[in-house]
Every structure is written in C-alpha cells, then in structure tokens.
C-alpha cells in the first residue's frame, strides 16, 4: 500500500472539509527458479546456465542482482545465503556464484567418485521481495559404452548401410555422445583405439579400403556405407574399428563386422554333338555370354579356371587334354571355354564316353556337367508311295519317312536332289543333282515332278489320261549334316476316274404331236476332263440290249417312231395317230472319251386334254367366298399339270376360250377375282342375296391344251336380329315369335299412353 494522499474541498460559502485517498497495487507474478544438472569429470570445472538474465534458469520481475536481496547460494542444509556464495562440499567439489552475472561454477575434486553429487540450492528475489529457489546438481558420469555392430547378411555385390552409434550409449544423459567425434581406425591400427590412432573420416571419394571392400561415413548422420568387393562373400575378415567421444571427451571404441551372401550358384548345361570317325567337332563355348555355363564372374584363368576332370575322378586334368582310348580326345582352351573333340578313325557308331567339365564363379562356387560325343549311324531313306484321284496333282513329302542316324545329325532339307530318268545306281549327289521347279520340271513317261526346296514337298502332275502306278518311279537323294547321302524312290499311283452317269428322260405331248428331248441334258461325265462323246449316242432297237446298241431310228408298232439326231443328241418321238398313253421306256447308250459306256432310257407319254368340272360356292350375305376351282378337276397326266399363269375369267359376253380377264364384276351381284394360288374369290354386293350369274373360266395345261368350266356362287340372306332387354337375338323358331308378340304388345301400350298424355296437355 502506498502513502495516502490528503485533499481539501470548499462549498460556495467558503466552508472547507478534508479527506484522504488510499490505493492498493497487487504483487507481480512470483519468480520461478529451474533446476539444472550437469556432468563434470574429476578435477574438472563446469559452468551452469546463468541464473538471472534474459535466458537464465530463473524468471521473475526485476530479479535483484546486488544488495541484500541479490541472488545467492544457500549454505548446505540451511535456508540462509552463504556469506560469500562459495560453498565447498567436502570430498566432492566447490560451487561459486557471481551474483552480478548469475553464473555458478563447479570445480570437482580430483578424487571425486562417479555418480550424482550433492546439489546446491540457489535463491532469487524479485523487485518486490518475492523469492524462489531451485538446485544445481553435478554428476560425475561413467565413461560411454560402444557395442560391436553386425546386421543381417547383405545381398551379393550390394552396398550395405549401418548406423554404428545406434547401439552405443553415453555414461549419462548429461554427457551425450558427440556425432562429430566419430572417427575410424586405419587397418594398421592396434589397441587401444583412441582419437590419436583413429582419426579417419572416410568419404566415398576417399574411402577406407580393407581386404573385403570399401567404407565411408556420412558425418552429418553417422551412417556408414560398406561397398563389398565384387569377389567377396561371407563375413568380412577385416572388421573396421571406430572411436566416439561424449561431450566430456570420454572416448570408447567398437568394431563393425558385416556379411555378404553368395551370388546365385553357377549352372552348367550338358551338350551332345555328333561326329564322324576321324572327324573333329567343337562344343559350344562353356563360358561367355552365350556359353553352356552361367554364373557370376566365371573364372577363366588360375586355380579356379574352367577345367576338364580326369575320367572317373573329380580332379581337374593337368593340361585339360583327355583321351578316351579307342574313341577320341577332348581338349579344352580355358581362356575361350571351347572344348574340341577329335574322334578316332576307327571309332564304332554310338554314344561315346562323356567328359565332365567344371566351372567356378568369382566367389569359388562350382558347377559341373558333361560333354558327350555321338558317332551316328548313317541315315536311312525309305521308298515313298502315294495314291490320289485321277488328273489331280499329288503332294508327297519324301523325307517324312526317312530317318537320320541320330537326332544330333539331322537330314538337311536343302540337300534334297532328284535323279534324271537316265541315272543308274549307285544314286549319289554326283549323278542326282536336279532341283526341278514347276517351270522346269522333271518329265517322265507318266507326268511331271517338281519340288519346293524350302519344304521338301514334291508335286506330281500326272499326264492327262494316265491311270495306275507310274511305270518309271523317280529317284531322289538326301544328306545329313555330315553330308552322308542316301537315296530312295517315289512311286505315285493315279486312281481311275469315276464312271459317267446317265439318267432317264421323259416327254409329254398331245395326240399326234412330235415330242423332242435332249437325251444327254441330265447325264454327267465321271470327270470333267473326260466328257461324254455326242457322236457315240445310239438307240437300242427291238432285240438289242445296252450297251450293244446301234440304232438311230426305232419304230414300235402301234406306238410310234423314235429318231436320234447324232449332231445334237436330241431324240424325236412321233406317236401313231391313235396312240394315247405312256410308251415303254426306250434304252439308249453313250460313251465318254475313255470309251466307257453308260445307258439309260427315254419315255414319251401322249395325253388327252384335261377335264374340268363346274364349281360352286356358298356364303352369307356380304361375306366373300373363296372357291378352289381346280379341286375337282383332272389334269391330262400327273406330269402335265395345269399352268396357273394361264387362268383367265370370262365376262358374260365372252365365249370360251376367248377370255382374258383376271377380274369380272357383275352389276348388282358382286365381283370375281383370280388369286395367286389359282383360287377365285367372289365378293358379293352388300344387298345381294341369291344365285349369282355364273361365269366361265379357261386354263391351259403345260402342253397348251385349253379347257373351261363355270363358277356358280350362291349368297344366302343373313338371319334377322331383334333386340330384347338389351340383347340382340336372331328370329328363329317359336321363341322368336313369342318375342315378336311381346314387342307388339309393348308398342301398343306405349302408343296408348302417348295419346292419353297428349289429351291431357290439350
């Protein structure tokens, strides 16, 4: 509270009075003091963060830095400020406060033991005398601990990263490890490892090189990268040492031991090749980009180089030259990876003893496989036959049934050659060198041959007219990859063509009319290239039996006469004037160009005109009726039907057969119309009832014979319909009369009532 203020005041008459003003102000926010712990080594000195000031341990309003209320250190175990702010803890160390700066220093005794030491209490006072206290604690920390580092096995030839400080720990949190102190030891360094003999900070550009690979560190993160050598796998034989210090400079060391997995094991592939006695073959190179073996960095020189095993051992042959008695010799060039094999001149056919080869990859992994020589027997060519239709090109693949001596010595399509017809055995590529083409074929007595050199397919084009097995088979030769030639023959056969066919013919005509037919119109050759010969057509006279027929004219008593026109193949039949009916079939014969005869018959029929019957129809008034006019008519013959397109109607004024109408209207009665199916529709006029005026119709059959008949429609009246109680009923029988009676009574009653109503109105 401040000193009150007196004041005087007077009224308008000059009378005075006095009073005082007394005010109060609250304290500022009390000060706050924060504790602090720091590490120090025996005999060492530390300074705590300043107590007062802008960034001090204590906060408050106008903290006092001089005089009675200034910041102070309490004497141990009291709440009294030490007189000179210098406090010694026996056997530990001495705290000293500079009140002006607020900084406390601590000097540890040289023999002080590790651990947390006795704290000192400090006090601060704000501008209004409010106080706060806290403590300052020294720690004598143990040294930091670094642990050796390992991690999961890394992939082959792949960089690994590791953080070695991740498992290391400081002696106390107040003395953390310092990342920038991380240093590496050269491979020549020996224990003890300190910053004196371990001062390397390797970079990617200037790494730490060991027997297993290269190391470098990222100083900003402490992450170490290990780049293993290309030929390294397994656990490193030379771990790297590192040292690191805490904030007090205490050092510790550990080592990094990493492992690298092996690359995929090498794979060796076997190979088999054919060779002739006395011949030489080279197997596919074992190593290299397209070699028989695959692996990482396959070794081509030195102790691990590709080698051939001595037979029946797993030991590399000293000079990689291995001889199998009675068979041949294998020789390996380790630099190229190529193995050659020289077969003995007298080696027998068959699969020979294999040789084992070994490859070694960059990390020493091995794989083995075998190389096998085969001395194949000679190939075999088998004679070919083929059967196909007459005058048809035949396709033959002569090599399809031929066999190579071994699949490793296949036949070569491009070696296929043909022998001229003059060639004689033995057939070889010397006297058989033809490659006939379609343009320049091999011509024989039976046809032509050519080959497609890309596929080995042979085409045989038989001569026109050739039938049977060829009289001159052709010879061909073919070789395997070792040029061993074999020969065989191709013998095609051509089947006879199908025989020609002759089919019966028939004609129809009216009495006395000549009938003409083309006998060969429906006959067919057995093959298009062997047509029927018109000049060979003959009729079979009475007493002749097909195919032994020779007539051009045949007369049958009471029937008629047949005449053949040899220039056209047409047969004409002239019936006797009184003959009606179907004649007996007349045989005839014809031959094709190969002289093969075939026979059939011709049958003429003479018909009377067809017969028509009059037609009638019936329908109710106003209903059209459809009349099937041909339903009761009879054609001249089943083979001589009516021609519906000739159907016409006759007007009443027309005289049949001179009629040409398709529709006829009869005034007051109705209209007749021809339908597409040969029926006639009569549509009566609405009021017409009764028998309509008949009209005639005319029609021809397919022989042109004209006949006619009449149509008689009848139209019946509709039944009368009356309405009672809302229903329409036809007037039929006694019920209808009853209804009529009721209707008359009702009408009379209604009429009387109307008269009465009018009288009343009057």
TrEMBL record:
Record has Amino-acid biosynthesis as a keyword: no
Pfam families with a match to the protein in the record: CshA_repeat
Matching NCBIfam families: CshA_fibril_rpt
InterPro entries from the UniProt entry: CshA_fibril
Transmembrane feature ranges: 736-756
Stretches assigned to the CshA domain: 178-258, 413-494, 498-606, 613-715
Keyword terms, alphabetized: Membrane, Transmembrane, Transmembrane helix
Protein name (Swiss-Prot/TrEMBL): Unannotated protein
Keyword Ribosomal protein: no
């Amino acid at each position: 509270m401040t000193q009150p203020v007196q004041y005087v005041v007077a009224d308008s008459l000059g009378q005075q009075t006095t009073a005082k003003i007394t005010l109060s102000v609250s304290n500022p926010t009390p000060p706050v003091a924060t504790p602090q712990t720091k590490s120090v080594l025996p005999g060492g000195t530390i300074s705590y963060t300043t107590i007062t000031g802008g960034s001090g341990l204590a906060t408050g309003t106008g903290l006092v830095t001089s005089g009675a209320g200034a910041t102070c250190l309490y004497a141990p175990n009291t709440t009294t400020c030490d007189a000179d702010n210098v406090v010694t803890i026996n056997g530990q160390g001495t705290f000293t406060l500079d009140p002006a700066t607020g900084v406390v220093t601590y000097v540890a005794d040289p023999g002080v033991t590790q651990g947390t030491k006795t704290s000192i209490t400090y006090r601060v006072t704000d501008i209004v005398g409010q106080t706060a206290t806290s403590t300052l604690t020294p720690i004598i920390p143990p040294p930091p601990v670094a642990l050796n580092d390992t991690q999961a096995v890394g992939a082959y030839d792949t960089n690994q990263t590791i953080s070695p400080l991740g498992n290391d720990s400081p002696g106390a949190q107040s003395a953390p490890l310092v990342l920038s102190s991380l240093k590496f030891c050269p491979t020549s360094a020996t224990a003890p490892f300190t910053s004196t003999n371990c001062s390397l900070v390797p970079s990617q550009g200037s790494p730490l090189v060991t027997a297993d690979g290269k190391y470098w560190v990222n100083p900003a993160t402490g992450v170490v990268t290990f780049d293993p050598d290309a030929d390294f796998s397994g656990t490193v034989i030379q771990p790297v040492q590192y040292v690191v210090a805490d904030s007090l400079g205490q050092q510790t060391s550990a080592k990094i031991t990493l492992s690298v997995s092996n690359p995929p094991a090498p794979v060796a592939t076997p190979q088999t090749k054919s060779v002739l006695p006395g011949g030489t073959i080279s197997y596919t190179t074992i190593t290299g980009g397209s070699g028989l073996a695959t692996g990482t960095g396959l070794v081509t020189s030195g102790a691990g180089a590709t080698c051939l095993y001595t037979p029946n051992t797993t030991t590399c042959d000293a000079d990689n030259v291995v001889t199998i008695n009675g068979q041949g010799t294998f020789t390996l060039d380790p630099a190229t990876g190529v193995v050659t094999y020289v077969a003995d001149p007298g080696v027998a056919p068959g699969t020979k003893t294999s040789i084992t080869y070994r490859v070694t990859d960059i990390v020493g992994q091995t794989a083995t496989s075998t190389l096998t020589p085969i001395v194949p027997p000679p190939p075999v060519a088998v004679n070919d036959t083929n059967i196909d239709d007459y005058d048809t090109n035949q396709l033959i693949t002569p090599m399809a049934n031929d066999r190579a001596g071994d699949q490793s010595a296949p036949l070569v399509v491009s070696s296929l050659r043909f022998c001229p017809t003059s060639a004689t055995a033995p057939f070889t590529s010397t006297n058989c060198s033809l490659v006939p083409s379609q343009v320049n074929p091999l011509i024989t007595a039976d046809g032509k041959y050519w080959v497609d050199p890309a596929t080995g397919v042979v085409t045989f084009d038989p001569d026109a007219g050739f039938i049977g097995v060829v009289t001159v088979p052709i010879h061909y030769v073919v070789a395997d990859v070792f040029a061993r030639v074999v020969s065989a023959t191709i013998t095609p056969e051509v089947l006879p063509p199908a025989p020609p066919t002759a089919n019966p013919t028939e004609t129809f005509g009216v009495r006395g009319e000549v009938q003409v037919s083309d006998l060969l119109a429906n006959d067919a050759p057995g093959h298009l290239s062997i047509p029927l010969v018109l000049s060979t057509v003959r009729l079979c006279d009475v007493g002749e039996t097909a195919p032994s027929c020779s007539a051009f004219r045949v007369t049958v008593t009471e029937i008629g006469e047949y005449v053949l026109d040899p220039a056209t193949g047409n047969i004409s039949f002239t019936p006797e004037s009184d003959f009606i009916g179907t004649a007996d079939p007349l045989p005839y014969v014809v031959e094709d160009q190969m002289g093969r005869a075939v026979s059939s018959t011709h049958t003429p029929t003479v018909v009377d005109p067809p017969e028509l019957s009059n037609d009638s129809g019936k329908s109710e008034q106003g209903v059209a009726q459809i009349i099937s006019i041909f339903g009761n008519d009879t054609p001249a013959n089943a083979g001589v039907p009516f021609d519906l397109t000739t159907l016409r109607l006759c007007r009443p004024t027309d005289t049949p057969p001179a009629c040409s109408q398709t529709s006829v209207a009869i005034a007051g009665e109705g209209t007749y119309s021809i339908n597409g199916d040969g029926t006639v529709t009569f549509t009566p006029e609405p009021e017409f009832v009764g028998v309509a005026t008949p009209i005639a119709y005319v029609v021809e059959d397919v022989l042109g014979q004209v006949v006619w008949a009449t149509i008689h429609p009848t139209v019946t009246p509709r039944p009368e319909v009356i309405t009672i109680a809302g229903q329409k009923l036809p007037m039929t029988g006694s019920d209808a009369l009853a209804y009529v009676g009721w209707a008359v009574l009702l009408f009379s009653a209604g009429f009387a009532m109307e008269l009465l109503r009018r009288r009343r109105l009057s």
